Each structure stands twice: as C-alpha cells, then as structure tokens.
Amino acid sequence: MPLKPEVYRVFEDIVGEKNITASDVILDSYTFNWLVEFHPGCAPGKYLQNRPSAVILPGSTEEVQAIVKACNRYKAIYKPLSTGYGSHAFSLEEEVVLLDLKRMNNIIEIDEKNRCAVVEPYVTWAQLTAESLKKGLFGTPHQAGSQASALANITSGWGMNIMGNHGGHNCRNALGVEWILPDGELIKLGHTEEWFTGDGPGPSLRGIMRGHVGALGGFGVFTKVGIKLHNWPGPPEVRTVGEGIFSAYKVKEPLKRAKAYMVDLPDYEKLADFMYAIGDAEIGYSVMRCGGPEHAFAIMGGAISNQTFLDLHESGMINAAAEEFNHPCMLFLYGISERDFEFQEKLLYDIVDETGGTIPDVINETPFKEMLADEFPVILIGNDTHLAHHAGGFVINAGYMGTTDPVVRHQGLPAEELKGKYMERGGILKDGLDSTYHNSFDNNSYIYMELEYHYDAADPFSVEESRKCITEERDTRREEKAGFEVQDIALCVGDSRLTIQERFDELGPLYGNYHLWQEKFKRAFDPNDVVDRSTYGVGVAGRNMDV
Ligand SMILES: Cc1cc2nc3c(=O)[nH]c(=O)nc-3n(C[C@H](O)[C@H](O)[C@H](O)COP(=O)(O)OP(=O)(O)OC[C@H]3O[C@@H](n4cnc5c(N)ncnc54)[C@H](O)[C@@H]3O)c2cc1C
Fold it and tell me: Ligand 1 centroid vs 158 CA: distance in angstroms?
C-alpha cells in the first residue's frame, strides 16, 4: 500500500525528491533477497509478499533523525538497512518505510593511537580494510563478505568472523555508537567525543543495543560506530590480481613472515584437541574451517570463471584432496619478526604431531599450493560467500556458539548424519558430509560452528527439504542444546513447521522469556510502536498483546 501523499511529501522535503521512491519497479527489488523462499506463509515464491510502502535514502544523521521523528508523528513503521545482504534486512510487515542507508558511506576517521575506526552504515569491510592496512591495522571482516556493511555487522547483525582467533567476535568490536533511538532521540554511547570505548561511568545501554546478536533493525538506527581494530604486521597495501581459483584473486607480491597451512585431523575429537592446543599456544592470526575438500575447495571457492572452476574439478585434484583429508583446519600464521614467525611455525608443527594431525603432501602440489600461498591472504581481506551459491541457494542447519567440545559434539558427527540423510534424498547438493563453517574466537576460548548446505532455490522440493533439515536439527537432542539455540537460523526465516512468529513464541519461554524482556524495552523506547517488528522481541503479534 502506498504512503499517503502528504506523508510522502514530508519525507521528500527531508531528503529531496531524488532520494525517495514509491515506484513499484524499485520497491520490488526490495523484496528479492537471500532466503526469502524460506519464509513459510510469507513468500509465495522468491519474493517477499509485502512491498515496502516507500524507500528513502537519507544522507546524514540529521536526515535520519528527521525521518524517524516524522515516522513517529505519522505512525509510519520503518526499518533501516545498510547493504541489505539477507532477507532479514527487509520487512515481513505491511506498509513499512525502508531507510536504505547507502548514501552514508564515509569513513569518518581511523584512530591509530587507540586502534579504532569510525564509520557510517554503508562503509563495507573491504573499504575499511584497505584504509586500515595503510595504518598497520586490521579489522574483523566476516564470512558474509567484504561487500557487507561493517556497521550493520557490528551493531545490528551477528559477528562470527574469520579473524576472530586474535580479533574476537564482532559483538565485542563495537565501541562508541551514534544511535537514533526508536522515538527519534539522538544518543551517543561511550565517551561524548571519542569512540574508543562503548561504555563510561554510570548506567549503560549496551545490553539493550545488542547481545550476542543485534536487534536486526528492530531498535532504531545506528548512524556511526567506533570499531575496534587490531594489529596488521604486513605491508600497507596488498596488491591483487584477478586470476585465482579459490578466491578469484591472488596477491601480487607474497607477504613476508606469513604462511597459510592446511592441517588434517582424523576425527572431531582430535580436531577439538588441536584447536584447544592452538588456543593455548596463542598462535594463529586466523584459524578457520570450511569443511572437507569437497566443500572447502569445490563449494566455498569462487573462481574467476565457471570454466576455471570446472577445470579444477576435472583435473581430479579435488578427489585427490578428498582422499587425503578428513577434517581440515586452515591456519594463517603471521610473525612480527622472522624469529617470531619461526617460533610460531615450530609450535604449530609440534601441536600437529602431538594431536595426531598431519599436513598432507597434496597441498604442496599446484593448484593447492598456489591457493594457500597466494590466495589465503586475499580471503582474509575479501572473503566473499556470494561466490558460494553454486546450487542457487545456501543455508545452515543452525549456528552454535560455545566452547569447542560441546559445539563439536553437536555440529560434528550428528550434523554429518543429518546432512547425509538429506543428501541421499536428493534435495540438497552432494558436497561432502563435513561442510562446517567454523570460527575460533579469542585463542579458541569459544567457537562458532554451522553446517552449511546448498539447495536449489528455484526447486520447491529442494527448498522444502532444506527447511526440514533445519527443523530436524532443532528437534534433535533439544534438551542438550540449551544455550546454543538462540543462534538458530530459523529465527530469521522460520522453518518447515513454524513461521518466525511461531518460533518466537515457542523459543522465548525456553530462554528466560527473553522475547518478553525485549518487548518491554521496545515499549519503553518505542512508545508509538513504529519500528518494524519482523525480527525482534515478541514479533508482529506484539501489536495486539499484553505483556
Ligand atoms: C551468505 C551470507 C553469509 C553470512 N555470513 C555471516 C558471517 O559469517 N558472520 C556474520 O556475522 N554474519 C553473516 N551473515 C549475516 C551478515 O551479518 C549480515 O548480513 C551483514 O553482516 C550485515 O551487513 P549488511 O550490510 O548485509 O547488513 P543489512 O542486511 O543491511 O542489515 C543487517 C541487519 O541489521 C539491520 N540494520 C542494518 N543497518 C542498520 C542500521 N544502520 N541501524 C540499525 N539496524 C540496521 C537490518 O535491518 C538487518 O536486520 C551472512 C549473510 C549472508 C547472506
């Protein structure tokens, strides 16, 4: 339903006529996104059922604030998005005004002394990384890719990332924020003028701003964020050429005092021992897993062309690797000096021996050698999972965060068994049983693990099977998974049995009624109930509910 003309004109006066639209053609492009076909009862096909009523492109904090105040005045529901990489960025509600923040794309500053950057919503991880390297600093880009917004990831989304072993989970890399609260009030968390801390003396709103996961657009608009940066021992610029197989790019000049390794562990128990030992030794500039070779090389890779990729398959290298690897773990060591690097490498080899691992010979052969030497550094900078959609759709069974042993206990063999069953039924791609995407945080103090699988988004059977796989994962050994489940992918999209709304109702009571607490915060901060409810608190049902 279009906005009332007089309300449209109010928004137009704020941003100018070029920066607002209610054109059906453009609005439709805001209904097509990753996983929309997963929303049961909502998406009849690959489009969300509801178009937004308008899309507005504010260019400054002042404009965002004016829009939010107008939304409150005219009771217009709004939702912000940064780059919009995922259907959670759009709305399941009717008549929602989307605030697309792509005009707010400035890096405000990089503070070398305090090791942090201040950015606006549309600054991507790629932009931030390129500028940070020049100052000897590095961020924590996530697997979603260099093209996604750093601010959205840090303030409002999740935060699993490939640099987490030394840089931490992104919920902890959020420093000061500038935030337009749901009713239009502008606040700043942290020091009034600086950005290096998100807290100061006195009460803090940090726990309301985000927990392990953010509010997904359900609690106002963040217009700037201070992001913690970490040490980069490498050159101020990493020059690349576009001709890789794994990442589609290669570094032009090899990095000094740096090397990537691919260690194989025979089973999940040994894998856990290895990860703990690496954590104890405090090495690993990046520690990550992308599953076995069929998945890591054949699926997570994104070659410069489909032909290059086909050539890799037909060369027999993937099969050769699959024979030698059971559960690979990728590490990137970076020394601050030659001596430091040699020490780290020696530690790594000792740990491999002690935990029953091997470094198979196949990785010394082309093209794997090139991938590790020339392409792994690029992955750190520009990992890009949109290259990973070979079947058309990509999803996860669930995402579990915790200490290594319990997470591996659920996402190791049991997840493989589940995936094997769905692979045999033909609904999902056969890309090996171990397709776990696995990040280590804070020297393996805790990890994140999800089992990824690929489906055909255009095939209703394949979509339905993928949704069932999520449901079955959730319902298996459920009582043992308390503490993990809130990371559940079905909280963004529902599953084969339940809509998101039903998932909120079902899950909340199992987790201290967190959804009711969120609802109380929402009512205190959003008295006119104008922020989109699709993915927050008790959900859309909260409009007619006593709490
Ligand atoms: C294939 C794929 C892989 C992914 N892998 C990872 C991963 O490894 N780790 C990880 O952490 N995440 C991952 N994600 C999710 C990802 O975190 C987010 O999509 C991304 O980090 C956020 O950037 P964005 O620009 O896409 O945000 P958007 O999609 O624009 O926004 C993300 C959420 O935040 C809200 N939001 C955006 N901007 C603002 C703002 N300024 N103020 C308030 N709310 C806002 C939106 O409403 C939305 O709900 C993945 C997503 C996809 C599609």
Answer: 7
